[in-house]
Amino acid sequence: MEKEFIEVKNERYRLGYHIMASNGWINDPNGFVYFNGYYHIFYQHHPYSEKWGPMHWGHARSKDLVHWETLPIALTPGDVEDQDGCFSGSAIVKEDTLYLFYTGHHYYGDNDPDHFWQNQNMAYSKDGIHFTKYEHNPVIAKEPADNTHHFRDPKVWEQNGVYYMILGSQENDGLGRVIIYRSKDLLDWEYVGPMTKAKSLAEEGFMWECPDFFELDGSSVLLLSPQGIEARGKDYLNLFQTGYFVGTLNESDMTYAHKEFKELDRGHDFYATQTTLAPDGRRLVFGWMDMWESEMPEQADGWAGALTLPRELSLKDGHLYMKPVRELQALRQETQCDTVQKIEAECELAHELKQHELIIDFEKISLDTAWTLSFDTNVAQVMHLTYDPKNHELILRRTDNNEARYGTIQEEKVFSCQVFIDTSSIEIFLNDGETVFTERYYSEAPLACRLTVDQPTTIAHTVYALDSKAITYI
Ligand code: FRU
């Protein structure tokens, strides 16, 4: 009997304006690209269950980065070159064709999940909907001799008429690294060598997943998701990290010299980023809005996982800012509140929050004001964000797992806070993306938001109801 896709049994945590699959599991965003008038985003997807399994590529497209239509599954595993999964990868447009590069995953069949091998493959499409796997796959059959079997997540770009592909990998010495290949035609790939690698296991990890490399504001940025970095004080507290290096590429041998690794998002639920260059030159990014091995209560309902909102990256003083794309203003429906008010000690800013955007303008607040923004229901506390002006520190506490996450700011204070609330997610952008917290939450009762201040202060705040049906599912 043919296997059937899992169905969503309960809509309680389904998001209103974030990309999910129509059913089943998703993880990493893949293949973010602009092609023939549409942005396309793909994602790691297992449509047969609410858990990770043989990876397919789910697919959605949008003309405006706001309203997305899901499309048929683009890649299904099971062919000789991708027997046990079409793992993460990227997309590139050449002439009138959209090319996908992805990792073929293969188990040796002894029931040991770490006993696998990986190769790199290509698929192409002219209409951006139906994809054909390249008949001469794999385009890269095996890892270099000094590499372990961790060899995946191709990111391809074009530079001065040459195509480059970087891969996340692990050197035989057990350290994470990025290796690079080049090609004239996207079909034949030649190994160039290692681009950069972890300086130590504890500091930079054993395997670098989902690398992405681009020029931004005059520097070269390597964005990646290392596994195995040890927690250090208030940093690297997630199981796996997503962050970046800023540096310089040596174009003669494609090695990359860079500064220290920095986390990109300070929340619990952000991993495996994928960027693209918008037609107007902006560098846009999606992340997976979850974390490996965290609780995912929506699994009880027949699905799991979502992508973050699309965000724009920019670089200032070596720090990567990440703010929601301006197109998201098109989500706004009705303005529920738009006021300037003096707060003595505490004030409810909004209630009945489901699909809402909340903007707080702290311009008038004095530099030494401590504040807490809390998101609670009438039955439970959910999440609190506190600003400590003495240390320029932000502390986010989640009450479900009782774990704090921390961020700092370089600016002299927090002057703005933009929050996107959806049925089961909260994304908080401080100072236009200087510090960001991405979080999932699970509560069937709607949230209310309160602001507490340690001295009387004046703020402006706006609340918009947002479109709750921005994504259409097939
Ligand atoms: C990152 C990752 C990738 C891999 C994919 C498999 O979350 O582990 O390295 O390609 O997920 O689904």
From TrEMBL:
It catalyses: Hydrolysis of terminal non-reducing beta-D-fructofuranoside residues in beta-D-fructofuranosides. Residues 18-324 form the Glycosyl hydrolase family 32 N-terminal domain. Its EC number is 3.2.1.26. GO terms for biological process: sucrose metabolic process. The keyword Cytoplasm applies. It is found in: Cytoplasm. One of its GO terms (molecular function) is beta-fructofuranosidase activity. Pfam families: Glyco_hydro_32C (PF08244), Glyco_hydro_32N (PF00251). Pathway: Glycan biosynthesis; sucrose metabolism. SMART domains: Glyco_32 (SM00640). GO terms for cellular component: cytoplasm. Enables the bacterium to metabolize sucrose as a sole carbon source. This is Sucrose-6-phosphate hydrolase.
